[in-house]
Every structure is written in C-alpha cells, then in structure tokens.
Sequence to fold (339 residues):
Amino acid sequence: MNRILIAEDETRITSFLEKGLRAHGFTTMVVEDGPTASSMARDEDFDLLILDLGLPGMDGNQVLHEIRVRKEKMPVIILTARQGLADTVAGLEGGADDYVTKPFKIR
Amino acid sequence: MLNRLESAFVTQRRFIDDAGHELRTPITIIRGHLELLSSDATEREETRVLVIDELDRMARMVDELLLLARAEQPDFLDLHPIDVAEFTEELAAKATVLGDRKWQVAETAPAVTVADRQRLTQAIMNLARNAVEHTAQGSPITFGSRLVNEEIHFWLKDEGEGIPPADLARIFERFARGKAGQRSTEGAGLGLAIVSVIAEAHGGKITLNSAPGQGSTFTIVLPLGQTSVGNA
Fold:
C-alpha cells in the first residue's frame, strides 16, 4: 500500500506533493492530463489516485467516472480549489473516497 | 426580466467561483512549498524565487479583479482629447519592450478622440502582450488606427497561430483560456476581458478576426460620438 498516482497539471503543486509523500515513504508518479490519468489507473497497479478536477483533455470527474464504470476499486481522493458544496457532493456521488480542497496541509 | 436576472446571477456566481479558484492555486503552491522547506541552501533559494513569483502573480490578479469591479462605476474613465495618430505611434513604441518582435505601424487616423488615455493604453498593451504570447521571436505585429464611417478603429494584427472557431466566442470572457485549463505564464485569463470592459466603458466594443494558421486581428471600435476628425 504505497504506490500513489497523482493526476495534476500544475507542476508547482506536484513538485511539493511528491516531495511530501515520498518523505512519508510513498512511491509517486505524476500524470498531467485526464486521458493519461484514466489509462494509467487502468494499466498500472496503484494503491491510490490523487485526482485534480481541472485536468486538460478530460476533467477529473470524467476520469473518476471511467474508473468506476470499469469497476476498479482503487481509492480516489479528489483534489480541488473549488469549494462549492455541489462540487463536493458530485465528487462523492461519483465514487470518490475523499475530498481535499486547496490549499491543504501536507502533514 | 427574471431570466436576465438569473443569467446575471449565474455569471456573477461563476466569476466569484473562478476568482476563488485562481487565487487558491498560488496560495496552495506557496503553502505547500513553505511547509516542506528544508535547511538546504539551494532549495531555500529556489523556494524564495518561486514564492515571490507566485505572490507577484496574485498581486497582478488582485489588480485585474479590482479593475473589472471598478469598470462598472461611473467615474471609471478619465476622459481627455487624444491625438489619434500620435497616440498610435506612441503605443507601437511602448510595445517594443514587450518582446523581440517586428513592431510596425501600418496606418494612423488623422483625428482627435475623447478617451481615457491610460485605460486605452492598458487595453492595447494587453492586446500587444497577448500577441507576443502567441507569436515567435521576430514575427511581425502591426498597429493601426483608422476612421471607418462613424467610428474610430484601433487595430492590432499578429501572424501567430490564430484562434480556433470554438474559442472565438468565449475568448473575451473572464478567466477564458486559449488552451483548456492551462495556467499561462502571464496571468489568470483576465487580459482580454479587461480590453473588452475598457472598450465598452468608452461606448465601444472589441472585435476579433482570426482563424487557425492565419493570425489574429483585434480591433477596438470607438464611436465617433466622442471623436472629431481634424488635422491633428
């Protein structure tokens, strides 16, 4: 339980996210667009997906939808700068396991 | 009436939502990098540069948001007569610092118009900055001003990649981006929205003629109501 896929297109966010997670002993991999996030989640063996909603190519909700339609059980944490209740509910109903709003604490 | 109110409400709501999103991104970046900052000297220096850059970005965004908010107030413009021909040459000269491009002036209108010199300069510099972002080094960017019927046109033409038809309609919207979701190096996607509100505050509008592979021509159209033809 230590391989994490990070789907986020802002490199200044992924850089500290990877650093923080690696310091806690996790192995991380970053993808920067929706279609790659979806195919990596399907083809590789990750224990967790950290998913930004505003991804190019295909947004995070759509990626989540594809993963859940394929019946993959991988836990998904949504990472977003949107704080609307409607967004949160949509994410959780779409099969997300948790929801983290930016800015967030690493520790 | 209710439909219009509702639509205005939705637009306003989305704007506030987008503004929050755009401001939270630099806050997240700054917070994350500071939280994990080690005692390594190189890393500290890199973080210092990054934090300042993100703060500058936030400061720019706050300025732009305040300008958009102020644009709806009656005293937004400071109107004075402007010699259009002289002003056109001045704009082209100012733009040269924006990037290594072939800056040129194709035509100047012999007219005096009443406008806010500072705001109009800001609008046209936003267009010039946008043109620089979408063209290669040494590529021509051309300024012009022209009297057309009852209007004065300030135009700026680039020979960049052009804008796909799907993006044409929304390019002047607040927080619109050329390429979906991408955070540009310059700003939050408010530059062209600002051009649009400045043109509208003058009783004018902004028009755009562009197609992929054919460059773009942006034109600020001001009504002749505030303009007089003369031997300026």
In short: Chain B has a mean pLDDT of 88. Strands of chain B lie at 80-83, 102-107, 111-115, 140-148, 151-158, 205-210, 216-223, 227-229. Residues 2-70 of chain B form a domain with the Helix Hairpins fold (CATH 1.10.287.130).
